[in-house]
């Protein structure tokens, strides 16, 4: 893989090539490790952007698609008892779960762009994207669960946690500044 000036970033021609490759049907490839790596990198970038978003904006007010209302109502109609704060992978990946999820997902073919695109989904919504807390899921499954988590207040834990840490850091900095000023005053006196 050619890179620019010793960095790990691909050159523009390579980006166009990867973008073109990712737009072709999956049947064109088999198990090409370069394509799998490109998909994984894109999924990870998506996860990082999404986590930053729910960390910086109150998730209750986020709109992820133009059809959030439809996704949410269909999701809760089909999966009204699904626990979304901490997901059980069996309720997403088992054969019986796949049979229930498949018709739901297919409803959004042509409505949600790249509805079947692979994304990373956190199992425990109070935690970040770690190897132990992440599974691979179709985009519409990610959207349905994350829209529900946002609307039902579960993702607020991430937003609150980040903002609490920032406040503690600010308070710590202000305390050090005051301590430094009072120390100087004592030296003078």
TrEMBL record:
List the protein's name. Polysaccharide biosynthesis domain-containing protein
Which stretches does the entry tag as region Disordered?
A: 161-189
Q: Which InterPro entries match?
A: PBDC1-like_dom_sf, PBDC1_metazoa/fungi, Polysacc_synth_dom
In terms of Pfam families, this protein maps to: PBDC1
The record places domain Polysaccharide biosynthesis at 35-159
Spans of biased composition, class Basic and acidic residues? 162-189
Q: Which PANTHER family match?
A: PROTEIN PBDC1
Q: Which GO terms describe its cellular component?
A: cytoplasm
